[in-house]
Each structure stands twice: as structure tokens, then as C-alpha cells.
Amino acid sequence: MTRTTNARIAGFTFLFYIATGITSLVVFGRATSGDGIAAKLASIAQHATDVRVYAVLILFTSLCALVLGVTLYAITREQDPDVAMLGMTCRVIEAVNGATSIKGTLGLIWLATAAAGQNALDAGAVQALAAFQLRGSATISATFFAVGSTLFSWLLLRGRMIPAPMARLGVGASVLLVLVLPLQLGGLFTGLVGWLVWMPMLVFEVWLALWFLIKGVAVPS
């Protein structure tokens, strides 16, 4: 495919990825509402369809990560093939982590059914398993995303393939996530702060997606 075609595909995929990711968070948050594991399991039992929709959305975001890894690699490989390959590998790992989490997510429906008394399982064991699964975080996948984004943004900046302010925003937003996400694994920067650190990345990706769709991408200098 040509550079322009790759840019168009990447632009559309960025927007689809963002829309799907935000929708999945809303759907899963609604399905797991409630205080305490027992309440969350009861909510999941009542919103089993939402959990299945969430699993499908995660599958879509994983596919988007693969498409973005390939298209961004094709766009940036002339600038530095080794760095571009590393960036694509990070996006592939992100996609694989997301896809492998789907089975556990669907397992929550089974646990919620067991908690409702339809399966002969110990209530304590059911809640322990559910707590473990619900405690699972997307931070690991997000870290690989942030590293891949840092590498691709740096190549776009170095090759002057997009406007410099946009590329600098991408590098800065990506590096911020690379620094913060590992700390979140340790229990820091949670809550509102944990969401705010994603705002620069959201602005960058929407800006970049529209630029790719409207302007395409320049030949690396």
C-alpha cells in the first residue's frame, strides 16, 4: 500500500479505536456498578449482555492496535526501521494482552451466575475469584501502548512527516504515560489523576487522525 493509503487507514483506525475504547469503559462500568464484590457480581448477572458487548469491543480495540502497529510501521520505517519495528512490536503485545483478557471477562458472567446460587460453588471462593478478575488492570497493555506511541511519535517528529507541534505533543503525551503507568501499578496516580494523564494523548490522537485523513503524511526528510 502507498503511504497515503496507510495514513488514511491509520487515521480512521485511530478514531475507531478511541470511540470503541471509551464505549467499552462506559459499558463495563455500568455492568460492574455497585459497592463490594457481591454487589458487582449481582450487577453483572443483571447486565450479562453488557459484559458480552464489552468483550466484543475489547476484541475490536485489539484488532485496531494491530492495524495501527502495521500502518504506523509502514509510514515510519524509512526513517528508522529498527525503531519502527520495536514500536510495532509494542502495539502487537498490547493487542495480544487485550485479546487474552476476553476469556477472563466472559468468565465473570459464569461467576455471577454461581454467586446467584445456580451453581454449587462456595460463595467465598466465587467472590475471591471475581475480586481477582475485577482487580485485573489494563495498565500493562497501556504501558506497551505508551512505549509504542513514544517511538512512532518520535519517528514522525524526526522525519518531519507531520507538523512539529503535533509531533512534539505526541512525544510529550506518550512519555508522560510511560512514566506514570508503571507508578499506577504500584498504586500511585489512581482516581481522577489517573484519567487526566490521558487527556494530552486523546488530543494528540484525534488531531493526528484528522490530519492523516485530510492531509495524509509527508515523505520523511
Question: How would you describe this protein?
Answer:
The structure is a single chain. The chain has 221 residues and is mostly helical. The chain has one domain (3-214). The protein contains 9 helices and no strands. It has helices at 3-31, 37-46, 48-76, 81-115, 123-135, 139-158, 164-185, 192-196, 199-214. The mean pLDDT is 85.
- Based on CA inertia axes, which overall geometry fits? elongated
Q: How far apart are the first and last residues' alpha carbons, in Å?
A: 20 Å
Low-confidence parts, pLDDT < 50 over ≥5 residues? none
**Overall average pLDDT:** 85
Write the layout of secondary structure elements.
Blueprint: H1 3-31, H2 37-46, H3 48-76, H4 81-115, H5 123-135, H6 139-158, H7 164-185, H8 192-196, H9 199-214
Summary, kept brief:
The protein is mostly helical. The protein has helices at 3-31, 37-46, 48-76, 81-115, 123-135, 139-158, 164-185, 192-196, 199-214.
Summary tags:
221 residues; mainly alpha
